[in-house]
Amino acid sequence: GQNIDQPTEMTATEGAIVQINCTYQTSGFNGLFWYQQHAGEAPTFLSYNVLDGLEEKGRFSSFLSRSKGYSYLLLKELQMKDSASYLCAVLDSNYQLIWGAGTKLIIKP
Amino acid sequence: ETGVTQTPRHLVMGMTNKKSLKCEQHLGHNAMYWYKQSAKKPLELMFVYNFKEQTENNSVPSRFSPECPNSSHLFLHLHTLQPEDSALYLCASSQEYGENYGYTFGSGTRLTVV
């Protein structure tokens, strides 16, 4: 079966760095997405990786290793507004999105 | 406001009621989706419409009935639901279906079945 694993919850301190990991086992691979979802709000697109390596976008970076079935989302200079759930999703060989259950990130002052 | 609008935001309904959820997008997208989001579970794809035609129905019970009258509007008709159907129902759209396009989501309808 297809599976996406990510930690259920993480806690970090304001101003620090946090890395949210995602491992996947899917039928084929056509890219990996990260979305951010604040409580009671819509998930919003953060990043898309299809090639190995690191993609940097401001305070957020996303890394992909296709050979290891692994990605991470790196958040730097954490702010209180970064408290949210972070969803990892993989586009499989049929271009279906397979979703992880999400990681709830709690930022403490 | 993300460009995808869902109404109502909250809905409480009895098991014998009939209600409808509405989704609207004016992003010019051709694909629209219904997802179910339950606590601590992955998003579950329910239905996909591409150019107004239903292309996916992921074994969803018949008490959920989708309707897509045009490429900008999507409905989910609900009847004789069960308490386990209580969840956040998300609508999303994308430029095309079946490609590596990001989705734009609505804020969802929080449904409680009593």
| Helical content of chain A (DSSP H or I, runs of 4+) | under 10%
Largest sheet of chain B: 7 strands, mixed
**Which structural category fits the helices and strands of chain A?**
mainly beta
Shape of chain B: globular
Output the number of helix runs of chain B: 0
Q: Give me the count of strands of chain A.
A: 11
Strand content of chain B: over 45%
Strand content of chain A: over 45%
List segments of chain B where confidence is low: pLDDT < 50 over at least 5 consecutive residues: none
- The overall pLDDT average of chain A reads 95
Number of strands of chain B: 11
**What is the distance, rounded to the nearest whole angstrom, between the alpha carbons of the first and last residues of chain B?**
30 Å
* Multimerization status: heterodimer
Helix coverage percent of chain B: under 10%
Distance between the termini of chain A: 40 Å
Outline:
Chain A is an all-beta fold and 109 residues long.
Architecture blueprint of SSEs:
The complex is a heterodimer of chains A (109) and B (114).
Chain A (H helix, E strand, L loop, with lengths): L2 E3 L3 E5 L4 E8 L6 E6 L6 E6 L3 E5 L2 E6 L4 E6 L8 E8 L5 E3 L3 E6 L1
Parallel strand pairs in A: 2-11
Antiparallel strand pairs in A: 1-3, 3-8, 4-5, 4-9, 6-7, 7-8, 9-10, 9-11
Chain B lengths: L3 E4 L2 E4 L4 E8 L5 E7 L6 E7 L2 E5 L6 E7 L2 E7 L7 E8 L9 E2 L3 E5 L1
Parallel strand pairs in B: 2-11
Antiparallel strand pairs in B: 1-3, 3-8, 4-5, 4-9, 5-6, 7-8, 9-10, 9-11
